[in-house]
């Protein structure tokens, strides 16, 4: 029998199907090496991993509860991390220092961009305009498919960042307002840097028609 192109494709298809069928039970069983992802992506509290003292970009936590034995409970997200002195939260940005909850992500965004609004998960919102975007390090999830894992799974002090406190952030918005239509607080800032977001909104009123919106991948309140 002549081995023509049709015959070659047929044999190749049969061989491929055979290899898939042979490997399927192994894949369903988790692989021969047992190489599986974590069963729980909720993360864990980092015991004893808080810095020894506050730094310039620390601020007392926005919402938390004081407990016995100098413990504190963060109330920003559903994780409700209960931290003993010296502990760090699941999102990596909150710490308990001497019985007080502090955030380590205040005025130090690791990403500052003028983004096209189409990059945001908004439907037909002022198309072809730009928004001023801020993002902070840390996240209260451990999603295996995170496209921003370099910053979402990092500690604030471990990344290069910009110094941008609320007044300076608003000044930047206003200086660029002729080219911008909004300001976006994105990634997990709404959870990681809730106090910063609120304080930015509390500084001088933004220009008329200037939109501010949060794009919060993490789950907050």
Give descriptors for this structure.
disordered C terminus; 5 helices; single chain; alpha+beta
Structure commentary:
The structure is a single chain. This protein has a domain at 111-214. It contains five helices and ten strands. It has helices at residues 5-28, 149-152, 166-175, 189-192, 194-202, and strands at 59-60, 64-66, 72-74, 82-83, 94-97, 100-103, 111-116, 130-135, 180-185, 211-214. Strands 7-8-9-10 form a four-stranded mixed sheet, with no helix packed on it. It has a three-stranded antiparallel sheet with strand order 1-6-5, with no helix packed on it. It starts with a helix and ends in a 7-residue tail after the last strand.
Annotation field: number of helices: 5
In terms of structural class, how would the helical and strand content be classed? alpha+beta
SSE ordering: HEEEEEEEEHHEHHE
**Main beta sheet strand tally, sense and closure:** 4 strands, mixed
- Mean pLDDT, to the nearest integer, reads 75
Basic shape: flat
Q: Measured on Cα atoms, how large is the radius of gyration?
A: 24 Å
State the total count of DSSP E strands. Answer: 10
Unreliable residue stretches: 26-37, 204-210, 215-221
Spatial order of strands in the largest sheet:
7-8-9-10
N/C terminus separation: 71 Å
Measured as a percent range, the helix fraction is 10-25%
Strand share of the residues?
A: 15-25%
